[in-house]
Amino acid sequence: MIKSFKTKLLLWTGLLFALILIIIGSLVYFTLDEYLYSRVDNRLSAECRELSKVVRFRDGAIALSDSSEWTEVEHAEVGQHAIYLRISTTEGHFLGASKNEEHLTFDIPYMPLAAGELRLTTQKLDSLLFRRADLHVPASARSEAVIITSLMHIGEMDEFLTFIRRAFFLLTPLFILLGLVGIHFLSQRVFRPIARITETAQLMLSSGELGHNIASDNTDEEIRQLIDTLNSLFSKLKRTTEQIRAFSANASHELRTPLTVIRGHVEVALSRERTVEEYKQALELILNESQSMTRIIENLLQLARMDRRKQDLQMELLHLDRLLLSLKEELEKKGREADIALSFAVDIRAEIAGNRDALKLLIFNLVENAIKYNKKGGRVHVSLSQYDSGYKLSVEDTGIGINKEDLQSIFERFYRVESSRSRQAGGSGLGLSIVQWIAAEHKAEIKVDSVPDEGTRIDVIFPVVEYE
Question: Any idea where the HAMP domain is (predicted)?
Answer without folding.
Answer: 188-242
